[in-house]
Amino acid sequence: MQINDEDCIRYLMREMDPSEEIEFEREMMSNENLLIEVESLRSTYNKVKKLPLKQTPAEILNKVKEQAVSDQQKRLRSSFKLIGWFGKTVAVAATILLLISVSVYFIDFGTLTSSPAQTTVISAGTVQPWVDRNEIINISDRTDAVQAQRIGAEYEKSYEKLIPVNKVDEPSNQRQGVLLTSSPVNN
Amino acid sequence: MELLKRTTKASYKDLRDRDLVRYFRKKADEAAFNELMNRHQAKIYSYIYSMINNPETANDIFQEVFTKVVTKMDDTYNEQGKWIAWVMRIAHNATIDHIRKQKRYIDVNSWYDDDDSRSDYFDRMTDESWVDADEQLVEGETKSSLMAHIAKLPEEQRTVVLLRHYYEMPFKEIAELTNVSINTALGRMRYALINLRKHFEEERQHEFKHANKR
Fold first, then answer.
1. Which label site among A106, A131, B128, B149 has the fewest CB atoms less than 10 Å from its CB?
2. A21 min Cα distance to partner chain B (Å)
3. Is B161 in Cβ contact with A48 (below 8 Å)?
4. Interface predicted TM-score (ipTM) of this complex, two decimals
């Protein structure tokens, strides 16, 4: 075992593991100088152990006790006040937030329920129909079935506004520019 | 009522430091704080006193330490740790701060040259083991010279000796408290004992010379 100077103190102060202690004692038995060193330190340390305990003067002790209790009471009172103030602030803030949320909800709900027609028009306007190879306008795969049916019905209705041209040789200024481009509807 | 008081007093004595501290923190419980003080005041005061060697200054530092203890308890004391170790850290820092501030102006060892101050220290010392007056005198002289020798030690060595003696602090904790390695703390203890041995030897030779002159 390699002995350091600090090991003597660790041994004296009982800060060694039991196995280290045994090793150290074995070393002491074989090394007289180490034994003398340890015993000399032990003898001095035994004198140090006689250092007296000093009692705090009574007046200082009482002063400290009174001061500590009074300070702690003050701290507790101020922390209770702080908690009360904080609690009230949180309650007021929560109420305001709740009122704002409820009003926003009712305003939104009122807007949605008051104009359904407008909503449908807007949504219908966003549908992009496409024309297939047979020149048929298709919208069914661009929107949901109900809306597709409604838009289809509107197209159907729009055909009714068309007036067939019976007399081709009588040009009419009014109808001259009208050109029917859609394919006939399959009935 | 008296019985209730006695029971409460007994139960406070049975409580651990941690529980007493909790009572004091939550309810500013005076009895809990008194019990803590009864347990530890002498060790804390002895440490400060032995480091400073001046009764008035030791009193001031002791009060300052407990003002800090109450102020910092809610913020820096962790209930998992030992309360006394935490208080000890505050006491040590306050003492060292004071010594460093005063180092230029006061010779810390000069107090031991003053016999009146020395008797004042032992006037307040309580030790029930002292039986008769002669024994008390011899014991007093021995303790007095021991204190004088410890006061002569360099501050770092004195700190380690006193922390170990009054708090039975492990060297790992002493090292942490004084910001050095464990080996340095152990080394300081070793040098302190070697220096003390030298002082005791000088004292013995001095006494021997005096005896021969008579």
1. B128
2. 16
3. yes
4. 0.72
CB atoms within 10 A of CB A124: 14
* B1-108 CATH: 1.10.1740.10
Round to whole Å and give the CA distance between A124 and A144: 11
C-alpha angle A164-A165-A167 in degrees, rounded to nearest 5: 145
CB distance A52–B125 less than 8 Å? yes
Does B99 score more than 80 pLDDT?
Answer: yes
DSSP A52-111: PP-PPPHHHHHHHHHHHHHHHHHHHHHHHHHHHHHHHHHHHHHHHHHHHHHHHHHHHHHH
Stretch(es) of chain B classified as CATH 1.10.1740.10: 1-108
Domain with CATH 1.10.10 in chain B: 153-214
CB B88 within 8 A of CB B44: yes
Residue to mutate among A3, A47, A62, A72, with most B CBs inside 10 A, is A72
Collapsed DSSP state (helix, strand, coil) of residue A184: coil
Of the two residues A106 and B104, the one the predictor is more confident about is: A106
CB-nearest partner of A64 from B46, B63, B197: B63
**Residue A48 contacts residue B194 (beta carbons within 8 Å):** no
Tokens of A162: 């068309």
CATH number of the structural domain B153-214:
1.10.10
Which residues are paired to A137 by β-bridges?
Answer: A131
